[in-house]
């Protein structure tokens, strides 16, 4: 079979009939709906197929691209049809063009005609293989997976078994689960660090405590599905469970997010199937096994909490997302995962990306603010999504604030050090994956930054107006951008711009004693939670203020989500209202 990628075409019997053309990136080779002038053999480069709807003034690029060895326009020429798309060069391309009159002339040249026929057969064979592969993939993606069916069916049965459990029995079960996981917190934390290669084991132990004992204590005594409550005058409310919840778990907080979602699911009398990030499947399965042990001991159905034993794959996740037996999805993780949850057709709550701006105002308690920022962003090496990401420091107190931050273990990079940080750690335009969850000391060692004290946090200055700096994006590491602020208007505008660029809907932080300034900041930033004079890491989850304690933080429509709440068990309940004739 002839392979054009190996340049046989350039020394073939077709050579005298070909015209060689070079095209720049962005150039249109032929237009949609035009009759073909011949066919094009791709020698090098890549082209895209673009389709246009003139009536609605819309345009799209097809997923299929064309590279060396492929032929464009052949099918249209053979069938005497117009081009169904426009061909556009994505990169500089070299094409060999065989015009219609030259194709006709091949009838008089046996060798050239035979070579051309072989090229046509090769091209059609390749297209058929691609179509068959796509058809196979589509069929498999829509086929049931036996283990998924079995898990969902057993989850439905488990959910039905606990719907009539009294609240005291449910609360006792929650506390038993929390205590069991907390007893294994140290080993689970160490396993998480080994599997994920990120974070600090000691800090993960603290997070597990907040995700177990603290959550169970908050849920204990709250009204559940058996209560009838007065909603408003002449209207009573009755809660009913949803059924089976599918919980998607991030690698940044694997154990505590599993336990949290399991506790709120059980409190609301739902069964839950959890799906851990591929890097945390081992610790995820062990966490579920410990929970199932408690379920068995407490006389609850073991399949009330499950996780798949299949290898992590998009196909398995999609099978759960689309399964008719799954009633609700709790998606915590990256943007693509959350998007797939919302596109599944199953009701869902998804959590958006964090990128909190932090305004250090001139009237702030600078010692307290510096201690809060450094402790929070260095906690678990900066991987909590609601932690500080971008410092906006009033210029009049910037030197004093930086000095106090340095006393807490921060390092302000020099211009030369900043250049190395950008070229080595942010080489791709954002924090490199290999640096996620690494300590400030490790990152500084790599780029040759040394100080005479242990480094806990990196402060990276950003030039005024450089809103597209990679430093102003989410950084799941102990690295903070540092922008100097001349006045309130500039601070509010920069905070708005940062969130519009990334992190809208999540969290913003302000350190100030001026309630009017705090109110203006709250009105300006497009987030679901504004934290005042507190740390982002503990504040966003409700561990340092009056917010609901949660490991699933809604980001509202601003962040592409369906709720702006700190999610809890009531989000997994349907409310039935009984309304009397007034």
Specify the helix fraction band: 25-40%
Coarse shape: globular
Question: What is the CATH architecture annotation of the largest domain?
Answer: 3-Layer(aba) Sandwich
Strand order of the largest sheet: 18-19-20-17-16-21-22
Unreliable parts = 1-6
Radius of gyration equals 30 Å
Number of strands: 23
Number of helices: 18
CATH superfamily of the largest domain: Aldehyde Dehydrogenase, Chain A, domain 1
Polypeptide structure, described:
The structure is a single chain. Helix 8 (254-267) links the parallel strand 11 and strand 12 (271-276). Strands 18-19-20-17-16-21-22 form a seven-stranded parallel β-sheet, with helices on both faces. The chain is α/β, with parallel strands linked by helices. It folds into three domains: 4-141, Sandwich (Jelly Rolls); 147-351 and 570-577, 3-Layer(aba) Sandwich (Aldehyde Dehydrogenase, Chain A, domain 1); 356-551, Aldehyde Dehydrogenase, Chain A, domain 2 (3-Layer(aba) Sandwich). The protein is globular and about 90 Å long. Residues 1-6 have low confidence and may be disordered. It contains 18 helices and 23 strands.
